[in-house]
Specification:
428 residues, alpha/beta, Rossmann fold, 58% helix, 7% strand, elongated
Length: 428
Protein backbone atom coordinates (compact mmCIF):
# COMPACT_ATOMS: atom_id res chain seq x y z
CA UNK A 1 0.00 0.00 0.00
CA UNK A 2 2.99 2.37 0.04
CA UNK A 3 2.19 3.05 -3.63
CA UNK A 4 -0.06 5.75 -2.23
CA UNK A 5 3.11 7.71 -1.43
CA UNK A 6 5.49 6.45 -4.14
CA UNK A 7 7.67 9.23 -5.60
CA UNK A 8 7.83 8.14 -9.22
CA UNK A 9 9.76 11.18 -10.49
CA UNK A 10 12.65 10.70 -8.05
CA UNK A 11 12.79 6.98 -8.75
CA UNK A 12 12.97 7.46 -12.52
CA UNK A 13 15.55 10.23 -12.13
CA UNK A 14 17.79 7.95 -10.06
CA UNK A 15 17.41 5.15 -12.61
CA UNK A 16 18.46 7.52 -15.38
CA UNK A 17 21.45 8.81 -13.41
CA UNK A 18 22.76 5.31 -12.68
CA UNK A 19 22.28 4.34 -16.30
CA UNK A 20 24.29 7.29 -17.62
CA UNK A 21 27.26 7.30 -15.22
CA UNK A 22 30.11 4.81 -15.52
CA UNK A 23 32.06 5.93 -12.47
CA UNK A 24 31.22 4.16 -9.21
CA UNK A 25 28.34 5.93 -7.45
CA UNK A 26 27.17 5.60 -3.85
CA UNK A 27 23.64 6.99 -3.48
CA UNK A 28 21.84 7.59 -0.20
CA UNK A 29 18.05 7.17 -0.15
CA UNK A 30 17.30 9.17 2.97
CA UNK A 31 14.06 9.23 4.92
CA UNK A 32 12.51 8.75 8.32
CA UNK A 33 10.93 5.44 9.25
CA UNK A 34 7.71 4.94 7.35
CA UNK A 35 8.53 7.18 4.38
CA UNK A 36 8.74 4.20 2.02
CA UNK A 37 12.49 3.71 1.54
CA UNK A 38 12.23 -0.04 0.98
CA UNK A 39 9.26 0.40 -1.34
CA UNK A 40 11.21 3.06 -3.26
CA UNK A 41 14.14 0.65 -3.71
CA UNK A 42 11.82 -2.10 -4.92
CA UNK A 43 10.23 0.27 -7.43
CA UNK A 44 13.70 1.29 -8.61
CA UNK A 45 14.30 -2.30 -9.62
CA UNK A 46 11.01 -2.38 -11.50
CA UNK A 47 11.53 0.98 -13.19
CA UNK A 48 15.00 0.10 -14.45
CA UNK A 49 13.93 -2.84 -16.59
CA UNK A 50 16.77 -4.96 -18.00
CA UNK A 51 19.41 -2.25 -17.87
CA UNK A 52 20.72 -3.30 -14.45
CA UNK A 53 21.78 -6.37 -12.53
CA UNK A 54 20.39 -5.73 -9.04
CA UNK A 55 21.72 -7.30 -5.86
CA UNK A 56 19.63 -6.70 -2.75
CA UNK A 57 21.13 -6.79 0.77
CA UNK A 58 19.01 -6.56 3.90
CA UNK A 59 21.65 -5.09 6.19
CA UNK A 60 19.59 -5.50 9.35
CA UNK A 61 19.15 -9.20 8.68
CA UNK A 62 22.92 -9.58 8.39
CA UNK A 63 24.26 -7.36 11.15
CA UNK A 64 24.99 -10.36 13.37
CA UNK A 65 28.13 -10.75 11.24
CA UNK A 66 31.22 -9.26 12.82
CA UNK A 67 32.45 -7.80 9.52
CA UNK A 68 30.22 -6.38 6.74
CA UNK A 69 32.90 -7.24 4.17
CA UNK A 70 31.85 -10.89 4.50
CA UNK A 71 28.26 -9.89 3.71
CA UNK A 72 29.26 -7.80 0.68
CA UNK A 73 31.51 -10.50 -0.79
CA UNK A 74 28.87 -13.19 -0.26
CA UNK A 75 25.99 -11.21 -1.76
CA UNK A 76 28.00 -10.18 -4.83
CA UNK A 77 28.56 -13.87 -5.54
CA UNK A 78 24.83 -14.16 -6.26
CA UNK A 79 25.47 -12.49 -9.61
CA UNK A 80 27.38 -15.64 -10.67
CA UNK A 81 26.54 -19.32 -11.03
CA UNK A 82 28.26 -22.66 -10.73
CA UNK A 83 32.02 -22.82 -11.22
CA UNK A 84 32.37 -19.08 -11.70
CA UNK A 85 30.73 -18.45 -8.35
CA UNK A 86 32.98 -20.97 -6.59
CA UNK A 87 36.12 -19.51 -8.17
CA UNK A 88 35.11 -15.96 -7.22
CA UNK A 89 34.45 -16.95 -3.59
CA UNK A 90 37.79 -18.75 -3.32
CA UNK A 91 39.71 -15.81 -4.72
CA UNK A 92 37.75 -13.16 -2.79
CA UNK A 93 38.24 -15.07 0.47
CA UNK A 94 42.01 -15.12 -0.12
CA UNK A 95 42.08 -11.36 -0.69
CA UNK A 96 39.78 -10.69 2.28
CA UNK A 97 42.02 -12.33 4.88
CA UNK A 98 44.51 -9.44 5.28
CA UNK A 99 41.69 -6.87 5.15
CA UNK A 100 39.55 -8.52 7.81
CA UNK A 101 42.43 -9.68 9.99
CA UNK A 102 45.02 -7.45 11.60
CA UNK A 103 48.19 -9.13 10.38
CA UNK A 104 51.66 -8.48 11.76
CA UNK A 105 50.43 -6.69 14.91
CA UNK A 106 53.11 -6.29 17.51
CA UNK A 107 51.93 -8.85 20.05
CA UNK A 108 53.54 -7.14 22.98
CA UNK A 109 52.39 -3.62 22.13
CA UNK A 110 50.12 -3.42 25.17
CA UNK A 111 52.73 -4.84 27.52
CA UNK A 112 55.78 -3.07 29.02
CA UNK A 113 58.83 -2.92 26.74
CA UNK A 114 61.56 -5.45 27.55
CA UNK A 115 65.11 -4.47 28.55
CA UNK A 116 66.39 -1.33 26.89
CA UNK A 117 68.99 -3.21 24.86
CA UNK A 118 66.23 -4.82 22.83
CA UNK A 119 63.98 -1.80 22.39
CA UNK A 120 65.51 -0.59 19.14
CA UNK A 121 65.38 -3.97 17.45
CA UNK A 122 61.84 -4.77 18.63
CA UNK A 123 60.51 -1.35 17.61
CA UNK A 124 62.14 -1.72 14.22
CA UNK A 125 60.58 -5.15 13.72
CA UNK A 126 57.22 -3.79 14.81
CA UNK A 127 57.30 -0.88 12.33
CA UNK A 128 58.50 -3.20 9.56
CA UNK A 129 55.59 -5.52 10.32
CA UNK A 130 53.13 -2.64 10.16
CA UNK A 131 54.50 -1.57 6.77
CA UNK A 132 54.29 -5.10 5.44
CA UNK A 133 50.75 -5.36 6.77
CA UNK A 134 49.78 -2.11 5.04
CA UNK A 135 51.26 -3.26 1.73
CA UNK A 136 49.54 -6.62 2.02
CA UNK A 137 46.15 -5.00 2.72
CA UNK A 138 46.63 -2.55 -0.16
CA UNK A 139 47.50 -5.41 -2.49
CA UNK A 140 44.49 -7.37 -1.28
CA UNK A 141 42.13 -4.43 -1.93
CA UNK A 142 43.45 -4.19 -5.49
CA UNK A 143 42.95 -7.93 -5.90
CA UNK A 144 39.44 -7.72 -4.48
CA UNK A 145 38.54 -4.90 -6.86
CA UNK A 146 39.85 -6.97 -9.77
CA UNK A 147 37.58 -9.87 -8.80
CA UNK A 148 34.56 -7.57 -8.52
CA UNK A 149 35.43 -5.96 -11.86
CA UNK A 150 35.19 -9.41 -13.46
CA UNK A 151 31.57 -9.62 -12.24
CA UNK A 152 30.83 -6.16 -13.63
CA UNK A 153 32.41 -7.01 -16.99
CA UNK A 154 30.53 -10.29 -17.21
CA UNK A 155 27.21 -8.48 -16.71
CA UNK A 156 28.05 -5.72 -19.20
CA UNK A 157 26.33 -3.83 -20.80
CA UNK A 158 24.19 -4.01 -17.66
CA UNK A 159 25.23 -1.92 -14.69
CA UNK A 160 25.53 -3.78 -11.39
CA UNK A 161 23.57 -2.02 -8.63
CA UNK A 162 23.79 -3.19 -5.02
CA UNK A 163 20.90 -2.02 -2.85
CA UNK A 164 21.78 -2.03 0.85
CA UNK A 165 18.51 -1.63 2.74
CA UNK A 166 17.65 -1.12 6.43
CA UNK A 167 21.02 0.39 7.36
CA UNK A 168 19.39 2.61 9.96
CA UNK A 169 18.18 -0.46 11.86
CA UNK A 170 21.62 -2.04 12.24
CA UNK A 171 24.17 -1.77 15.00
CA UNK A 172 25.83 1.64 14.54
CA UNK A 173 29.30 0.09 14.25
CA UNK A 174 28.11 -2.34 11.56
CA UNK A 175 26.38 0.41 9.54
CA UNK A 176 29.40 2.70 9.62
CA UNK A 177 31.83 -0.04 8.70
CA UNK A 178 29.55 -1.14 5.86
CA UNK A 179 29.55 2.37 4.36
CA UNK A 180 33.30 2.80 4.82
CA UNK A 181 34.20 -0.52 3.20
CA UNK A 182 31.82 0.04 0.29
CA UNK A 183 33.69 3.23 -0.60
CA UNK A 184 37.22 2.06 0.13
CA UNK A 185 37.12 -1.48 -1.25
CA UNK A 186 34.31 -1.59 -3.86
CA UNK A 187 35.14 1.57 -5.78
CA UNK A 188 34.82 -0.18 -9.14
CA UNK A 189 33.68 1.39 -12.41
CA UNK A 190 30.24 0.16 -13.47
CA UNK A 191 29.31 -0.85 -9.91
CA UNK A 192 26.82 1.36 -8.04
CA UNK A 193 25.46 1.23 -4.48
CA UNK A 194 22.10 2.51 -3.23
CA UNK A 195 22.06 2.86 0.55
CA UNK A 196 18.69 3.11 2.29
CA UNK A 197 18.94 4.88 5.65
CA UNK A 198 17.71 7.55 7.99
CA UNK A 199 20.59 9.96 7.50
CA UNK A 200 19.97 11.86 10.73
CA UNK A 201 20.19 8.64 12.70
CA UNK A 202 23.40 7.71 10.89
CA UNK A 203 24.91 11.09 11.73
CA UNK A 204 24.14 10.47 15.39
CA UNK A 205 25.96 7.14 15.14
CA UNK A 206 29.00 8.88 13.67
CA UNK A 207 28.98 11.41 16.49
CA UNK A 208 28.75 8.61 19.05
CA UNK A 209 31.51 6.54 17.43
CA UNK A 210 34.01 9.28 16.62
CA UNK A 211 32.99 12.25 18.77
CA UNK A 212 32.93 14.67 15.85
CA UNK A 213 29.60 16.41 16.35
CA UNK A 214 30.60 19.55 14.45
CA UNK A 215 31.85 17.74 11.35
CA UNK A 216 29.84 14.50 11.34
CA UNK A 217 27.90 15.46 8.20
CA UNK A 218 31.02 16.27 6.22
CA UNK A 219 32.48 12.92 7.33
CA UNK A 220 29.47 11.00 6.00
CA UNK A 221 29.50 12.93 2.73
CA UNK A 222 32.99 11.56 2.01
CA UNK A 223 31.36 8.20 1.36
CA UNK A 224 28.19 9.33 -0.44
CA UNK A 225 28.07 10.90 -3.90
CA UNK A 226 24.53 12.24 -3.69
CA UNK A 227 21.38 11.92 -1.62
CA UNK A 228 17.72 11.46 -2.54
CA UNK A 229 15.49 12.67 0.26
CA UNK A 230 12.08 11.01 0.74
CA UNK A 231 9.84 13.43 2.57
CA UNK A 232 6.75 12.51 4.51
CA UNK A 233 4.04 12.36 1.88
CA UNK A 234 1.39 15.00 1.34
CA UNK A 235 -1.83 13.23 0.48
CA UNK A 236 -4.80 14.74 -1.27
CA UNK A 237 -7.86 14.12 0.83
CA UNK A 238 -11.50 15.10 0.99
CA UNK A 239 -10.73 16.41 4.46
CA UNK A 240 -7.90 18.93 4.60
CA UNK A 241 -7.63 18.48 8.38
CA UNK A 242 -6.65 14.83 8.14
CA UNK A 243 -2.96 13.94 8.46
CA UNK A 244 -1.31 11.79 5.79
CA UNK A 245 -0.95 8.89 8.24
CA UNK A 246 -4.68 8.86 9.00
CA UNK A 247 -5.64 9.10 5.35
CA UNK A 248 -3.33 6.16 4.69
CA UNK A 249 -4.94 4.18 7.52
CA UNK A 250 -8.41 4.80 6.09
CA UNK A 251 -7.36 3.59 2.66
CA UNK A 252 -5.73 0.49 4.12
CA UNK A 253 -8.82 -0.43 6.12
CA UNK A 254 -11.20 0.01 3.20
CA UNK A 255 -9.00 -1.95 0.80
CA UNK A 256 -7.97 -4.79 3.14
CA UNK A 257 -11.35 -5.39 4.80
CA UNK A 258 -13.41 -5.08 1.62
CA UNK A 259 -13.64 -8.82 0.96
CA UNK A 260 -14.29 -9.84 4.56
CA UNK A 261 -16.62 -7.40 6.31
CA UNK A 262 -19.81 -5.43 5.82
CA UNK A 263 -19.67 -1.80 4.73
CA UNK A 264 -21.00 -0.64 8.10
CA UNK A 265 -18.37 -2.57 10.05
CA UNK A 266 -15.60 -1.27 7.78
CA UNK A 267 -16.61 2.36 8.27
CA UNK A 268 -16.69 1.91 12.03
CA UNK A 269 -13.17 0.42 11.88
CA UNK A 270 -12.11 3.40 9.76
CA UNK A 271 -13.43 5.83 12.35
CA UNK A 272 -12.19 4.17 15.53
CA UNK A 273 -8.75 3.28 14.14
CA UNK A 274 -8.40 6.91 13.01
CA UNK A 275 -9.02 8.18 16.53
CA UNK A 276 -6.54 5.75 18.11
CA UNK A 277 -3.79 6.32 15.54
CA UNK A 278 -4.17 10.10 15.52
CA UNK A 279 -4.25 10.40 19.28
CA UNK A 280 -1.05 8.39 19.60
CA UNK A 281 0.79 9.98 16.64
CA UNK A 282 1.43 6.62 14.97
CA UNK A 283 3.66 6.73 11.86
CA UNK A 284 3.22 4.88 8.58
CA UNK A 285 4.92 1.65 9.64
CA UNK A 286 2.91 1.63 12.83
CA UNK A 287 -0.26 2.19 10.81
CA UNK A 288 0.51 -0.81 8.61
CA UNK A 289 1.31 -3.01 11.59
CA UNK A 290 -1.89 -2.01 13.37
CA UNK A 291 -4.21 -2.46 10.38
CA UNK A 292 -2.59 -5.77 9.39
CA UNK A 293 -3.09 -7.14 12.90
CA UNK A 294 -6.69 -5.92 12.97
CA UNK A 295 -7.40 -7.77 9.72
CA UNK A 296 -5.63 -10.93 10.88
CA UNK A 297 -7.59 -10.99 14.13
CA UNK A 298 -10.90 -10.28 12.40
CA UNK A 299 -10.45 -13.02 9.80
CA UNK A 300 -9.04 -15.67 12.15
CA UNK A 301 -11.17 -15.08 15.25
CA UNK A 302 -14.44 -16.56 14.04
CA UNK A 303 -16.28 -14.06 16.26
CA UNK A 304 -19.84 -13.63 15.08
CA UNK A 305 -21.18 -10.09 15.23
CA UNK A 306 -24.86 -9.87 16.20
CA UNK A 307 -27.23 -7.65 14.30
CA UNK A 308 -26.77 -4.06 15.40
CA UNK A 309 -23.40 -4.78 17.02
CA UNK A 310 -21.10 -3.54 14.25
CA UNK A 311 -20.13 -0.35 16.06
CA UNK A 312 -19.31 -1.98 19.41
CA UNK A 313 -17.43 -4.92 17.90
CA UNK A 314 -15.44 -2.65 15.57
CA UNK A 315 -14.44 -0.37 18.44
CA UNK A 316 -13.33 -3.14 20.78
CA UNK A 317 -11.43 -4.94 18.03
CA UNK A 318 -9.43 -1.77 17.32
CA UNK A 319 -8.89 -1.12 21.02
CA UNK A 320 -7.75 -4.63 21.93
CA UNK A 321 -5.40 -4.87 18.96
CA UNK A 322 -3.86 -1.50 19.78
CA UNK A 323 -3.35 -2.47 23.42
CA UNK A 324 -1.82 -5.80 22.37
CA UNK A 325 0.83 -3.91 20.40
CA UNK A 326 1.60 -0.98 22.69
CA UNK A 327 0.61 -2.13 26.20
CA UNK A 328 0.60 -5.91 26.27
CA UNK A 329 0.80 -6.00 30.05
CA UNK A 330 -2.85 -4.93 30.13
CA UNK A 331 -3.76 -8.28 28.57
CA UNK A 332 -1.92 -10.39 31.10
CA UNK A 333 -3.65 -9.32 34.30
CA UNK A 334 -6.92 -10.33 35.87
CA UNK A 335 -9.89 -8.95 34.02
CA UNK A 336 -10.77 -6.30 36.59
CA UNK A 337 -7.23 -4.90 36.75
CA UNK A 338 -6.72 -5.40 33.04
CA UNK A 339 -9.82 -3.48 32.05
CA UNK A 340 -8.74 -0.50 34.13
CA UNK A 341 -5.21 -0.42 32.67
CA UNK A 342 -6.68 -1.13 29.25
CA UNK A 343 -8.89 1.95 29.51
CA UNK A 344 -6.13 4.18 30.78
CA UNK A 345 -3.87 3.18 27.90
CA UNK A 346 -6.51 4.39 25.45
CA UNK A 347 -7.57 7.59 27.20
CA UNK A 348 -5.82 10.93 27.47
CA UNK A 349 -6.46 13.60 30.09
CA UNK A 350 -8.05 16.73 28.68
CA UNK A 351 -8.52 15.18 25.26
CA UNK A 352 -11.91 16.70 24.51
CA UNK A 353 -14.30 16.14 21.63
CA UNK A 354 -12.49 18.14 18.96
CA UNK A 355 -9.42 19.44 20.76
CA UNK A 356 -7.11 18.33 17.93
CA UNK A 357 -7.59 20.54 14.88
CA UNK A 358 -6.81 17.51 12.66
CA UNK A 359 -9.65 15.56 14.22
CA UNK A 360 -10.62 13.01 11.58
CA UNK A 361 -14.12 11.95 12.56
CA UNK A 362 -17.22 13.61 11.22
CA UNK A 363 -19.61 10.72 10.80
CA UNK A 364 -21.22 10.62 14.25
CA UNK A 365 -23.26 13.63 15.29
CA UNK A 366 -25.56 14.28 18.17
CA UNK A 367 -27.39 17.31 19.50
CA UNK A 368 -25.58 17.92 22.72
CA UNK A 369 -25.42 20.98 24.92
CA UNK A 370 -22.29 23.04 24.64
CA UNK A 371 -22.36 23.24 20.85
CA UNK A 372 -20.29 20.10 20.22
CA UNK A 373 -21.03 18.64 16.80
CA UNK A 374 -18.42 15.99 16.03
CA UNK A 375 -19.11 12.97 18.18
CA UNK A 376 -16.70 10.34 16.87
CA UNK A 377 -14.48 10.88 19.89
CA UNK A 378 -17.42 10.77 22.25
CA UNK A 379 -18.59 7.41 20.91
CA UNK A 380 -15.07 6.00 21.10
CA UNK A 381 -14.46 7.13 24.66
CA UNK A 382 -17.94 6.03 25.60
CA UNK A 383 -17.19 2.47 24.51
CA UNK A 384 -13.79 2.47 26.16
CA UNK A 385 -15.20 3.73 29.44
CA UNK A 386 -18.12 1.33 29.30
CA UNK A 387 -15.68 -1.59 29.23
CA UNK A 388 -13.90 -0.47 32.39
CA UNK A 389 -14.56 0.35 35.99
CA UNK A 390 -16.06 3.51 37.49
CA UNK A 391 -12.53 4.74 38.05
CA UNK A 392 -11.85 4.37 34.33
CA UNK A 393 -15.04 6.23 33.50
CA UNK A 394 -13.97 9.03 35.84
CA UNK A 395 -10.70 9.20 33.93
CA UNK A 396 -12.68 10.19 30.83
CA UNK A 397 -13.81 13.42 32.41
CA UNK A 398 -17.07 14.89 33.58
CA UNK A 399 -18.22 15.94 30.12
CA UNK A 400 -18.30 12.36 28.92
CA UNK A 401 -19.99 10.87 31.97
CA UNK A 402 -23.17 12.80 31.13
CA UNK A 403 -23.66 11.28 27.72
CA UNK A 404 -21.87 7.90 27.65
CA UNK A 405 -25.20 6.13 27.98
CA UNK A 406 -26.71 8.17 25.17
CA UNK A 407 -23.88 7.44 22.76
CA UNK A 408 -23.21 3.80 23.52
CA UNK A 409 -25.58 0.90 23.01
CA UNK A 410 -25.00 -1.08 26.21
CA UNK A 411 -26.54 -4.23 24.75
CA UNK A 412 -23.23 -5.18 23.16
CA UNK A 413 -20.52 -3.57 25.26
CA UNK A 414 -19.83 -6.43 27.66
CA UNK A 415 -19.96 -9.31 25.17
CA UNK A 416 -18.06 -7.42 22.46
CA UNK A 417 -15.31 -6.26 24.79
CA UNK A 418 -14.72 -9.67 26.35
CA UNK A 419 -14.96 -11.52 23.03
CA UNK A 420 -12.14 -9.45 21.56
CA UNK A 421 -10.18 -9.17 24.81
CA UNK A 422 -10.09 -12.95 25.26
CA UNK A 423 -9.26 -13.68 21.63
CA UNK A 424 -6.52 -11.09 21.21
CA UNK A 425 -5.01 -12.18 24.52
CA UNK A 426 -4.94 -15.80 23.31
CA UNK A 427 -3.02 -15.01 20.13
CA UNK A 428 -0.52 -12.46 21.51
Amino acid sequence: MMEVFYNKDKCEALSTALRCVDRNQVVCVDGEWGTGKTYFCNKLREASGDDFEFIYIDAFRNDFNSDPLVVLISELSNALDGEEKRRYLDSAAKHAVPIIGKACEFIGSNAPFPASGFVGELASNYIRGKIESYLEVDESIIGMQAEVKKIVDKKSPKRVVVIVDELDRCRPSFSLEMIEKIKHIFDVEGLHFVLSMNKEQMLSSIDHAYGIASSKESYLEKFIDFTIRLEKPVVESHDTNVSAEIDYARRLVRKNFEEFASDDFIEHVVNFSSIILLKNSIGFRGVERFIDKCLTCYVSSGIRIPEGGDRAYACYMCCCVFVSIYNRSALTKTKDCASEEYCKSLLVDNYCFVSDRRYPIYEYKDNLSGGEEDMGGGVFYGFVAAAGSDKAINHVGSKYKNFVDRLVDRRFTYQAFHAWFDYVKSVC
